Amino acid sequence: MRGYGHDLEGIVDAALTLLDEYGLPDLSMRKLATHLGVQPSALYWHVANKQTLLAAVADRIVAGSGPAAAPAPVTETAWALRAALLRHRDGAEVVVSTAALSLGSGVLEGRLRAAYEAAGSPDPARDATVLAQFLLGHTYLVQQRMQAASIGAYDADPAQVAESTRADFAAGLRALAPGVR
Fold first, then answer.
1. What is the pTM of this model?
2. I need a surface site. Which of 56, 80, 121, 125 has the fewest CB within 10 A?
């Protein structure tokens, strides 16, 4: 398995490498197995199917937002999650597809819920769900623009797209977390 362990962690590491290199449309179980130097059937000892693999990848992407020991303020948590999603090509799409199918650990909403609870929100679960939807939708849009810019279909420098949308994200946070800093 070319530098990767023979366990779920190693498979997720390899899947993230392929995701960053080729993007979600080209991340297949067959390509992953070839990358690892194994037969595709060997992957199914560790994951039931591609969606299960993507759920593990989504959890790893979200874990990149930092440790979840103590809840950070809502806006700080949201910015950290946005950064984690943007760190990986198609990161938002992987996480949103996993969330849409109720797969994965739900750590993204869990972190937001904990932040809202610490801020004294009267309905932290609802607030977390709404902010998660905004966060995922916004970041997905940003990543789509970055992809389009990389092939000349969007008039911007791909590296500057995320930075140029920071003000929009900040405005959304102010609208969804009024008085919460």
1. 0.90
2. 125
